[in-house]
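Thread amino acids onto this structure.
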């Protein structure tokens, strides 16, 4: 039972529906760290448990459908969420369960990161999961954030150059989401710049118009890029829940990832590509520990 103490401080409540990364760099662990770093109250619905580290994924255990549903109900029957971020869903059945539950609870703000493969190459969902996402979740999504591999899988054709981004975003937008962000992080790593392309629908004078914004930024030279996609989508969701419009939320989230990558260069976590560092604002890694403010 609640006490009668005043509860006037409002912080954004952000729910991630995602897989667990035992290594802590991606998945719901990354999501929670980002939400916390950005001042939101983070919550989790676990869809799958991955045995994972910086070298790769060794095992995946899907969570039973009724347990996925019960977690979503537990949150919306009590706490609620200002926005939902979706990551790894692992099977078409989990996609359907999540979509049905979110519809039942009338959830309207959804950032969908269509996670289908880990950077290490491990499959985190197959073609049938992609098809279920398109059918069940795209129409509910405020924003989808595919990387190049995911955009190629979802569209059934190769998206391999920045010149393909606009048409790919348009074709993905035609599949039902309100907005699409194509992430260019995996495009040729010899390029010194990265382009992420945002396309979204808006209404002007009662007419729907399609808007486009390219975010071009320097590629940070680092191996430690584990979790960039999860971090970006969680940061966008948190900034949206905090009241920013889509274009600014995406811009701020890209800057947050960049700062995390710069700070993550100085960390040595695991033998493979390590994670970025989402706590960069609080614990800057480039300073010797004794010089950091306490
Ligand atoms: N080396 C880099 N320097 C600067 N920004 C980067 C770098 N690598 C990725 N990003 C940014 O990180 C964000 C996520 O992009 P990316 O293409 O890596 O997504 P992803 O493949 O879904 O991530 P993940 O590898 O976690 O699955 C994008 O905004 C992208 O521009
Ligand atoms: C659990 C999980 N979700 C998402 C990704 C994508 O980075 C990953 N590697 N692991």
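Threaded sequence (294 positions):
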């Amino acid at each position: 039972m609640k006490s009668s103490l005043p509860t006037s401080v409002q912080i954004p409540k952000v729910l991630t529906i995602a897989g667990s990364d035992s290594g802590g760099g991606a998945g719901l662990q990354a999501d929670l760290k980002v939400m916390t770093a950005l001042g939101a109250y983070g919550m989790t619905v676990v869809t799958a448990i991955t045995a994972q580290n910086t070298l790769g994924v060794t095992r995946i255990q899907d969570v039973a459908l009724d347990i996925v549903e019960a977690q979503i109900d537990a949150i919306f029957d009590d706490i609620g969420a200002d926005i939902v971020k979706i990551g790894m869903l692992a099977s078409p059945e989990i996609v359907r369960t999540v979509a049905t539950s979110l519809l039942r609870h009338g959830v309207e703000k959804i950032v969908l990161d269509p996670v289908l493969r880990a950077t290490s190459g491990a499959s985190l969902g197959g073609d049938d999961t992609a098809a279920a996402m398109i059918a069940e979740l795209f129409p509910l999504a405020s924003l989808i954030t595919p990387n190049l591999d995911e955009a190629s899988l979802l569209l059934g054709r190769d998206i391999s150059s920045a010149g393909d981004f606009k048409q790919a975003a348009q074709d993905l937008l035609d599949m039902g989401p309100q907005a699409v962000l194509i992430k260019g992080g995996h495009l040729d790593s010899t390029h010194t710049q990265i382009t992420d392309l945002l396309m979204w629908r808006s209404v002007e004078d009662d007419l729907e118009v399609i808007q486009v914004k390219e975010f071009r930024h320097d590629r940070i030279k680092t191996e430690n890029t584990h979790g960039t996609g999860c971090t970006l989508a969680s940061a966008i969701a948190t900034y949206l829940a905090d009241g920013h419009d889509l274009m600014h939320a995406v811009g701020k989230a890209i800057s947050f990832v960049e700062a995390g990558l710069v700070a993550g260069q100085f960390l040595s976590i695991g033998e493979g590509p390590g994670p970025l560092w989402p706590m960069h604002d609080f614990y800057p890694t480039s300073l010797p520990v004794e010089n950091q403010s306490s």
